[in-house]
Amino acid sequence: MIDWTGVFRNALWIFGLAVALAAFSYTDWQRARQTPRLSLRQALGQPGFQAAFSLGLGLFCAGLALSSQRWWETAAWAMLSLLFAWQMLASLRAQRAARQHPFPSEAAATPAAVPPTTDET
């Protein structure tokens, strides 16, 4: 008889690693196509990569939490999964903010104008 819960638990962590690898691979491919070419460090710092990679690692941790035998292993993997979920949400917010304001305003990009002084003496 097939243990479907075991299949689900193991499929979850395998799928999580597949998502993380796909995010890394896609980011590297996209980086190679850009001109000027970003460094790998810059590409991995982008919010889009961070969100997808955190999703993959969160699924990986959730799968291991479901597969753990001891309570402290389950707690540790579940905590890591929650931290990756938080990281993913923070990256999605940063990505949304970057889409809404793609360029800094000219006022923020230039130094503040100094008002002219008047010498009335």
Description:
It is a single chain. The protein has 121 residues and is an all-alpha fold. The protein has one domain (8-34, 43-100). The chain is 74% helix and 0% strand. The protein has 5 helices and no strands. The longest helix has 30 residues, at 4-33. The termini are far apart. 21% of the residues are buried.
Helix and strand arrangement:
Elements: H1 4-33, H2 40-44, H3 47-67, H4 71-100, H5 106-109
Helix pairs in contact: 1-3, 3-4
Low-confidence stretches: none
What is the CA-based Rg, rounded?
23 Å
Q: Could you spell the SSE succession in H and E letters?
A: HHHHH
Overall morphology: elongated
Q: Quick one: biggest sheet?
A: none
Structural class: mainly alpha
State the total count of DSSP E strands.
Answer: 0
How many domains? The number is 1
**Mean of the pLDDT scores?**
87
- Span between N and C termini? 99 Å
Query: How many distinct helices?
Result: 5
Helix coverage percent: over 70%
**Share in β-strands:** under 5%
